[in-house]
Amino acid sequence: MADPYAQPHLTPQFCFSTRTLRDFLRLSRSTIDDSITQNLNALVTPARSGFDPTSTTQRASRPPSRQVDPQSCQAFQNRVLFPSWQARTEVLNYCGVVATSPDPDDPDATLREAEALRDRERVVDERLDPYSARFFPREARTETLAALVRQERRVEDIIRARTWGAVRERCGGDLPSAWEDAIKRWKAKD
Predict the structure, then answer these.
(1) Residue (of 126, 114, 163, 137) closest to 2 by Cα position
(2) pTM across the whole model
(3) In angstroms, rounded to a whole number, what is the distance separating the alpha carbons of residues 30 and 181?
(4) pLDDT tens-place string over residues 79-112
(5) What are phi and psi of 3, to 5 degrees?
(6) Distance CA 1, CA 23 (A)
(7) Which residue, among 49, 37, 44, 50, has the nearest Cα to 69 in the 3D structure?
(8) How far apart are CA 35 and CA 21, in angstroms?
(9) Which of 148, 145, 161 is nearest to 26 (CA)?
(10) Matching InterPro entries, A to Z (predicted)?
(11) For residue 154, how many other CB atoms are within 10 A of its CB?
């Protein structure tokens, strides 16, 4: 069974280092969600009841579905899947707060202010150069971070829906149809 990828120490620098943020999310997702089938297969113990020699006398057109033991599945969800999702949610929430907070340490703030001042002073004659009105101001790093957090939240929703579909298919039982309901139920137990 895979172990959840540990949540990093959260600081604004962690969030503003978009590569580090993306690496954390990528590693966490690859450890748990991208390999959900392998993780669930690891929970199946086919030889628990012993080998049945009659199982090889006929070729089955389709192997029976390999349901995971409900207790093993529940343990996987409680100890690995949901804590991993929770860690990623906390990181995205924290970075979302950082993205909406003022950034007094922004190294490009003075450069952006100078560009904005030059842009106000610029005289544009679009008859001479129709492209001269184009000006691409630098984005504040909080705006870049906010866009990244929004994008990663959408990715997270897609990945969790796919993962939860695989868990429901293999584990069966009394599982909610939506991953949001499952994680609410898990949080309520804590």
Answers:
(1) 163
(2) 0.74
(3) 23
(4) 999 999 999 999 999 999 988 887 667 666 556 5
(5) -95, 145
(6) 22
(7) 44
(8) 20
(9) 148
(10) MIX23, MIX23_fungal
(11) 10
Cβ–Cβ under 8 Å, residues 129 and 164: no
Tens digits of residue pLDDT in 130-140: 676 565 566 77
What single letter denotes the amino acid at residue 180?
E
Tell me how far apart the alpha carbons of residues 33 and 159 are, in angstroms, rounded to a whole number. Answer: 7
